[in-house]
Hints:
With 312 residues, the protein is an alpha+beta fold.
Amino acid sequence: MADRRFLPISRVAPESLLPLLEEEAAAWLADLRWDYAPIRQILVSLARRRLLPGYAALDGAGRAVAYSYFLVTRSKGVIGALYASRSLPPEEPLDRLLALTVDGLKGSPAIRRVEAQIMPFHRRDPTEGFTRRAFRHWARQYLERALTAGDEHHAPAPGKIIPWDAARLEDTGGVTLAAYREQADAEICADYGTRAGCEAYVRSLVGNPGCGIFMPAASFMALDEAGAPCAYIVCSRISARAAMIPQIAVHPARQGNGLGRALMARTLARLYHTGFESVSLTVTERNARAFDWYRRLGFLPRRRFGAYVWER
Length: 312
């Protein structure tokens, strides 16, 4: 990378960054059926206002050929992207870009934790760069399942299942906290460590496009005898014919009786009836129980990626 210049994105002309963001969006759509346009629009808006924190690698003509961005919330930094153009040879490392991003976050005394989940494109795996900088690593899988006529019907549920009820969203925090206690995902995402964090995470799923556009019609809740949520499933649209399930949680006291399968069946049926062709989700490989369950439901691996965490 001797001929590369590395600059904060705030010092890069937005027009130099736009082609790279468009290429990244095309990679998401081609590889994962994910329309990245809503996220790209947010990034472009921030870049135009010089408000996007991150770094870019520029070639000799001043064009961005790689970039990273990150977000900071109180004492936590989250690396949102680490992407290099397909025009660069796969063996050309992103080490300098990663170093600037990580060292910048670590250099702030207020930052106590840094998280990243990086989807690799063009045969680039950043794991070695992260682990060399004292990040812990978890292998994760992006799974996908085709929707077929067999998804049109669903069996009776072992309990009451209702359409998504925004008024009950606050109660999902307790369900999520219990479901993820002592799970690998609670180590990957600090939000899973508190009820407030779990609730905030679910609110972000329904309010922000980071995991697709929320689909309340394909999302459901299960209620216990007292009428409180004991399980739920969140579904989003990631492109015209592809959906995603960014969250499904069943309280441990209700696991093992088919409630999760009943929620999944309702979502799959709704997606099939509304013309969707596929649905995806992600899982941590160490969560063997969930990984095996998804595969029994017909989800197949499409892309392996990494989750990384550093703590001071």
